[in-house]
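Reopening this one. Same input as before:
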Amino acid sequence: MKLIRWMIVLGAFSAQNYVFAQDAKIVEAAKKEGGKVVIYGSLETPVVEGVIQAFRKKTGITAEYWRASAMSVMNRAMTEYRAGKPGYDVVLNNSDPLVIMANDGMLAPYDSPTAKKYPKDQIDPRFGPITRYGIVGVVYHKGLVKPEDAPKSIEDLVNPKYKGMLVMADPTLHVTTIQWLSSLHKIMAKERVEKFIRDLAAMKPTLVESMLPASERVATGEIPIALTFVKFAYSAAQSGAPLDYVRVDRMLGDSHFVVLGNKAPHPNGGKAFVDFYIDDESMKILAQSGEFVNRKGIYPPLPGAEKIQYVQMEVLEAKAFEDKKKEFGKIFSK
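Same output, byte for byte:
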C-alpha cells in the first residue's frame, strides 16, 4: 500500500515537473520569435488587462489585445485569415463564432498541459477547456427601479409597465443574444417561448451593439433595465453605479474558450498565453473582476453568485445561426 501511495505521489510530481519544463520551453521559444502575443477577444479590456499584466510578469512576454463584440472579433479574424494575413495568435470568444471559425480551418488544435487540471467533460475537443461562462440575466438601476418594483423573472420583462424601459443587444447583430433567444425553451415552457419573443419585440427595447453598451446605458441611468451579462451588476457597482440583478435560479449562458490561431504569427507566444490563461492564477484574476469562471469553489464577488444554476445555451452551426438571425430580424424590426 505504501509503495502504491509513493508511486502516485511520484507520478503527480513527475507530471507537475513535466508541465513546468514544457512551460519553460514554450516561453523560451516565444521569446525567440519576438516575445509577443496578439489576442483578439470579446472579453472586456479592463478584465483582460489584469491577466495580461500577470502573464507579462510571469513570462516576460508582452501581449497586445484588441477587443470587440463576439461577431466583430470573428469577422475581423476571418477577413485577415482569408486574405492570408492573420494578425491574431489567440482568440477569446464564445462557442458560436468559434464553431464557424473552426469550420473555416482558422483554429489550431493545442493540447495545453494545463488542460489536465480540468475534468474531461469540461474540455471541448476543438477548443480545449471551458474557461468561463457568460451568464445572461436582467440588470436594473436601483435609483430608477425599486427592488420591489423590478421584474421577478425573465417573463416579467414583457409586463406593459416596463415598456420603453429596456435595453438589450441587437438580435440581428449580437451572437449571444441570438443564442439566448434560441435557447429560451431550456428555461421556459416551450409553448410560451414564441409569444414571449414577440412580446419582447413589442416592448420596443433600445437595441445596442452588444452586452457592454447595454449595461452602460443602465449604469448611467439613461435606461432603467437591461438584458445583459449578470457580471455587469458587479463591475458597474465598483464604479459607483447602483445596479443589481434579478435573482432567478436558472439562467442561460454560453461557454467561452481561449484558442490558438491556425496561422498564428507568434505560435509559441500564443501557446504560452493559453497555458497561463486556463491556469489557476488567471482564473482567480477573472473571478475577482466579476467573471463566472470554470473553477469549482471560485465565484465572482457578486451576492448570490453561488446559487445561480447555469444552463448552457444552444450552440448554433453557421446555417442555423443565419436562419435565427433572419427570423429575429423580422420580429424585432416590426
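So the earlier flakiness isn't reproducible anymore. For the record, DSSP finds eleven helices and 14 strands in the chain.
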